[in-house]
Design brief:
It is a single chain. By secondary structure, the chain is mostly helical. The protein has one domain. About 55% of the residues lie in helices and about 5% in strands. Strands 1-2 form a two-stranded antiparallel ribbon. A hairpin with a 5-residue loop joins strand 1 and strand 2. Helix 1 packs antiparallel against helix 4 and helix 7 crosses helix 8. It is globular and about 45 Å long.
Amino acid sequence: MFYDALKRLVDLFGSTLAITILSPIFLVTAIAIKLDSKGPIFADTPMRVGRSGGLFKMYKFRSMVINAQDILIKNPKLMEEYKKNSYKIQNDPRITQVGKIIRKYSIDEFPQFINILRGEMSIVGPRAYYPFELEEQQEKYPNSREFVKIILSAKPGLTGIWQVSGRSNINFDKRVEMDAKYVRKRSIFYDIYLIFKTIPAVLSGSGAI
C-alpha cells in the first residue's frame, strides 16, 4: 500500500532527524534522572500492544521511583484511583521531581523515536495500550470492542489525535473511538496536520499527568 510505504519513509526520516536534533536533551535528561533518584535512565514499564496485537517494549525515560509498579500493586487506594481514572493517577506520589517536568512536556516520550526506527511504532498513530488495559476496559465498555479491532490494524504512534485533544483528560471509551476514527481517516496530510497540532499541546503541557 502506497500510504504505508510513504509513512514508513516519513517515520525513518523523522525519527532519525529527531534523535539527532534532540540528542542534547537526551543527554541532559539522562543526567538529571540519575542525579535526582536511584534507578535506571529508562522506565521499566509493562509491554505494550502493537499492530495486529503483537507486544513490544516501549522506551521511555524513567519519571517514577524504582519499583513503581510494585508500589502501585501493593497500595489498594492507589490501584483503585488508577483503574477508576483510566489508568492515570492525579498527583501520583511515585513521580520524581525530574519526572514531573519531563512528563509535563512529554520529554519522557522522546525515546520512543527508537521504537519508530525499529518499526514498532509510527510518529502518528493510535495510543499504545497495555494488554491488561485493553482487556479490562473492553469489559467495562463493551461498545469499544469494534474500535479496538480497528486500532490494532495500525501501528501505535508517538502522537495522535488523542494527544492534541486533551491527552490524559480523555477516558478510554472516547479515546479508542477517536483512535479508530484516525485509523479510518489516516493520510500523510492528516498525519502532518496532527504533528503540527502536537507542538503547541506539548509546549503547553495541557492534559499531562
